[in-house]
Amino acid sequence: LNTGSPAGTEVVQLYVRDLVGSVTRPVRELKGIQRVHLQPGESRAVTFALTEADLRFYRRDMTFGSEPGEFDLFVGSSSAHGQSVRVELLP
Hints:
The chain is mostly beta strands. The chain has a single domain, classed as Sandwich (Immunoglobulin-like), CATH 2.60.40. The chain has strands at residues 8-18, 29-38, 57-58, 64-65, 69-76, 83-89. It has a 4-stranded antiparallel beta sheet with strand order 2-1-5-6, with no helix packed on it.
């Protein structure tokens, strides 16, 4: 929601955090961005598509793949500010 009087642009960012993995991963990994232009008083829904392939990484045995488990998804204007939800990747 643009609560200001001028039109504005916001860059909405999607970050993923793997709660428990076989290797140490970054606290938050950037997985998507969208630029949104809003008129005063306007709000808009932003949708990101996240697949199993987006959760892959190089494991200890140097194979590239994902691991089942819980992940936190963060959406906001930066990695420090936003809303989060917990999801689970099943085997």
